[in-house]
Amino acid sequence: MINLQNELAGANSVAIAGHVRPDGDCVGSCMGLALYLRKYFPELQRTEVYLESIPESFHFLKDSDTIRDSSEASGAYDVVFVLDCGDRERLGDSAVLLDNAKKVVCIDHHISNKGFGEVQYIEPQASSTSELIYLILDEEKIDTPIAEALYMGIAHDTGVFQYSNCTRRTMEIAGLLMEKGIDFSGIVDRTFFQKTYIQNQILGRALLESMMLLDGKCIISAIRKKDMEFYGAGPKDLEGIVSQMRYTTGVEVAMFLYETSIQEYKVSLRSNNIVDVSKIASYFGGGGHVRAAGCTMQGNIHDVINNLTRHIEKQLEEAEEKQTLKG
Ligand code: 5GP
Ligand code: MN
Description:
It comes from Candidatus Limivivens merdigallinarum. The chain is an alpha/beta fold. It contains twelve helices and twelve strands. The chain has helices at residues 4-7, 24-40, 96-100, 129-136, 144-157, 168-178, 184-193, 197-208, 225-231, 241-246, 277-283, 301-326, and strands at 13-18, 46-51, 68-69, 79-83, 103-108, 119-122, 211-213, 218-223, 253-261, 264-271, 287-288, 292-298. Residues 25, 84, 109, 128-129, 157 line the site of manganese (II) ion.
């Protein structure tokens, strides 16, 4: 646990940054903290948030229009908060902020986070970074806009309170946030479930073209760059596809890939009960959580899929062996 008062003693300027392709938890935690600091630490002359462009549906968050694009990140800040980001590379263009920062405070819940910065608050058991931000704030000082940001973050990273990372503490925090006058069902509806027509079309296409591997234990699908261009879809429009694939009966691992450039794929992995996908993603230079992880891989699509499948198969075999020994 960290104490904000102590960490900000004597500071005049703060920057807050999160990972590339910011998701609900990343944006929620960054904005929750920014709104709190701007309101309750008037001695801070500047509190800037640097992120890549955020989904339209997050624009309802108070002051989301003050978020600066990470490509503009520069300058020397007294304190740089790095939120929901497992390593320096995942900061993208915002990583330059670390070079001139007087102090870096890293707050995260990724199991793959090896720790960086002078101050670290990393709790892999936490549902979300937004949950950790809640814990460092004064409960009575959390107003409606701050609660909206944190509730959105917690709801997104728990798949709306469904994943195994969702604990009693998570639910209690969410319950307290619900009492702050937020439109909790509207937030979930509009930012999590609602999809644009294009997003639904591309989801349908990915499901239609999916394949089952490893005796039905693994489902995979890939989208090519030219198909994304056809639909006018960007990476933000692909969120949720891999989660839907995971809901296939009998499947342990879902794997979704999209082409980022020639012979380069962004990989999303999800598992249900057995496979530690964070281990696999980390092996290929990425990271994440036990049940949700990702990485970027080079090579032709067949090699990429084969390489990933081999690791999944190995873990499944190991799990089966353990089971046999027990039995
Ligand atoms: P997604 O599949 O939704 O992009 O990501 C799932 C989880 O894995 C998220 O927690 C995300 O932060 C993490 N993740 C995805 N891609 C990468 C990556 O390239 N590097 C690291 N370190 N983590 C990633
Ligand atoms: Mn997160």
